[in-house]
Amino acid sequence: MMKASSNLSMTLILAGFLLGATAVLAQTPAQQPPAQAPAQAPSQGGQQAAPLSLEGAPPPVSAEEDAAFKAFNDAPNDDPAKKDSSANDFLQKFPQSRYRADVYSWQVKYYFSVGKIDEMEAAADKELAIAPNDAQTLAIVGSALPRKMNASTPDPEKRLEKAEQAAQKALDLLPTFPKPANMSDEMFAKAKDQTAAMAYSGLGLVAFRRGKFADGIPPLQKAVQLDPQPDPVNYYLLGICNEKTAHFDDAVADFTKCSELPGSLQATCKMKIDEAKKLGATQLSAPK
Predict the structure, then answer these.
(1) What 8-state DSSP symbol labels residue 47?
(2) Which residues fall within 8 angstroms of residue 147, CB to CB, at 6 or more apart?
(3) What span, in angstroms and rounded, lies between the C-alpha atoms of 62 and 64?
(4) Among 243, 233, 238, 242, which Cα is nearest to 266's?
C-alpha cells in the first residue's frame, strides 16, 4: 500500500496548480527582509545608546540579484527541471538573497510533484528557517513525510511528530491569509481548500501510522471533503480506518469512491469493497 501511496501522492495535485497560482499562500510577512531596529536613545540614567549594527539587517539591494530573480520567477514551468537548475544556480550565486525563501518554496512544490521527497524536505527545512509561516510548505511537509515511510525509516516517531506539527501549524495559519488583489475569490478558496486538505491528510496519516484508526477518521474526512482534486489515497486510508473501527458501511463507501478514481489503487480498493461487505455481514450475523 505504501508504495502505491508514495507514487500516487506525487500525482494527486496538478503541477501547474502547485507551481502557479497557489504560491501566493507562501507570501507571509515572515518572508520579507527584517527591518533594522532603530538606535536606542540615551536613557535618563545616563547610559549610552547601543551602537549601531548591521547584524540582522537585510542585504544591500543588488540590481544583478533583482534581475536574476526576475528571470527565474518569469521562467515558464513547462520545463521544471530546467527551472530547478536555474534555481540552484541562483542560490549558489546569491546564497544570502532576500529572495531565497521564494526560490526554496518553488523547489518544495517541484520536488513534491516529482516524488523527490528527500530533496523536498531539505528545501522545506531551508525555507521554513527563513519563512516559518508558509502554510503551503508546512502542509506539503505534513502530508508527504508520513506517506514516504516504511519499515526501514529511521526514528519513525520523530518523523511523525515533525509531520504532525507542520500540518497543524498550516491549519492554524490558513485563516489568517488575506486574499490577494490579483486573485479571484474562487481561485483563492480552492488554493486554501487544497492546502487544508493536504494538512488534514497529513494528520490522518500520522494517526494511521500510529495505529490510532479512530483518531484518523475525522481529519481524513475533512481532507476528502475539501480537496478540489480528489485523492484516492485519502479514500483508501479512510476506508481502512473505518474498517478497523468496525464502521463497515462507511468503509464500503470509501473504498467505492477510491475505486472510481484513476490510479494504481483502483484494483486494491475494488477488492477491499468485497472484504468490507463480508466483514459487515459477519458482524450482523454474529449472536448478540
Answers:
(1) P
(2) 2, 5, 6, 9, 205, 233
(3) 5
(4) 233
Tens digit of pLDDT at every position of the chain (288 positions): 443 333 333 333 333 333 333 343 444 333 333 333 334 433 444 444 444 444 455 566 789 999 999 999 999 889 999 999 999 999 999 999 999 999 999 999 999 999 999 999 999 999 999 999 999 999 999 999 999 998 899 999 999 999 999 999 999 999 998 888 889 999 999 999 999 999 999 999 999 999 999 999 999 999 999 999 899 999 999 999 999 999 999 999 999 999 999 999 999 999 999 999 999 998 776 666
Task: Return the residue matching grid coordinates 540579484.
Answer: 65
Ramachandran area for residue 172 (φ above 0: left; ψ -120 to 50: alpha; else beta)? alpha
What does the block give as the cell for 96? Answer: 544570502
**CA proximity to 203, closest of 172, 163, 241, 147:** 163
Q: Report CA torsion sign: 280, 269, 146, 155.
A: positive
pTM over 0.85: no
- Rounded distance between C-alpha atoms, residue 192 and residue 19, angstroms: 15
DSSP one-letter code for 149: -
φ/ψ bin of 184: left (φ > 0), alpha (ψ from -120 to 50), beta (otherwise): beta
Residue type present at position 210: R
